[in-house]
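Help needed: design a sequence for this.
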């Protein structure tokens, strides 16, 4: 890019040039993301504006809605007809202690198995792990990008959900549902009924837990809370590896938890971790 007389262009002039090219070229582009990257490379822009930042700037300039619409759509977000919304619960510790690979937990203010650098965790911390505000923020962001939030699956992450006090579990789910519908419910039961009968409909609720915290008692409680899928932290299927990583449960616990959950018609997902101490590529496969 040629330099203007007197030296390099200012950051503002580069940004203006970038936005002007977006305005003139995006209508004919089949891939707005590729266009953004190519223009940023041509203008030597390192910090590429997000779609939301561009949309905000284009609105200020009175750009026609057809141009803005090209930036709003990301069909993969809702292509299946179901919008996935993730909520981070403030579950900072595990009942058994700590696996050797977990970076968070304790006084860090970060859920045990997360580093704190994950985008979802950073957003949750900014909102003080308030489930209602997390969901509301996500819905607003999706709608601002042109997505119709009509049917939702809630995924609650952050740790061993079923080890939390029952009232905290119910409170997290209730707050998430209240955030989805933009209205505080008087009770947990009211929030569940609203989720079944009012848009956005809730097609499923997912939680994550440990195999030794998925007993009949916990599974029955999850059913009453409207949970439909359980993600189990299996990591490996080897008792020796479990000992080495201080996992605190056994393969037998995995089998028992899977049976209990499947007998109650839960969808079950395993979290697996290749490359753990004591493992090998052959074992991982």
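Sure. Designed sequence:
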């Amino acid at each position: 890019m040629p330099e203007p007389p007197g030296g390099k262009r200012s950051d503002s002039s580069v940004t203006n040039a970038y936005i002007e090219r977006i305005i003139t070229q995006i209508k004919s582009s089949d891939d707005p993301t590729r266009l953004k990257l190519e223009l940023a490379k041509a203008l030597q822009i390192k910090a590429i504006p997000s779609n939301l930042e561009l949309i905000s700037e284009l609105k200020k300039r009175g750009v026609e809605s057809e141009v803005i619409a090209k930036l709003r759509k990301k069909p993969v977000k809702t292509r299946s007809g179901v919008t996935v919304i993730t909520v981070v619960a403030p579950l900072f510790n595990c009942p058994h202690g700590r696996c050797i690979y977990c970076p968070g937990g304790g006084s860090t203010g970060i859920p045990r198995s997360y580093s704190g650098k994950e985008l979802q965790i950073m957003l949750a911390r900014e909102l003080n792990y308030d489930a209602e505000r997390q969901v509301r923020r996500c819905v607003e962001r999706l709608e601002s990008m042109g997505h119709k939030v009509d049917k939702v699956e809630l995924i609650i992450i952050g740790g061993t959900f079923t080890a939390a006090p029952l009232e905290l579990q119910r409170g997290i789910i209730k707050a998430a549902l209240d955030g989805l519908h933009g209205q505080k419910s008087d009770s947990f039961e009211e929030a569940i009924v609203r989720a079944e009968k009012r848009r956005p409909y809730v097609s499923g609720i997912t939680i994550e837990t440990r195999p030794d915290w998925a007993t009949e008692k916990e599974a029955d409680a999850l059913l009453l809370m409207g949970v439909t899928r359980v993600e189990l932290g299996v990591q490996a299927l080897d008792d020796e590896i479990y000992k080495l990583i201080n996992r605190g449960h056994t393969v037998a616990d995995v089998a028992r938890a899977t049976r209990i959950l499947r007998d109650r018609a839960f969808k079950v997902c395993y979290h697996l971790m290749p490359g753990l101490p004591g493992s090998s590529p052959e074992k991982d496969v």
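The chain is about 45% helix and 10% strand.
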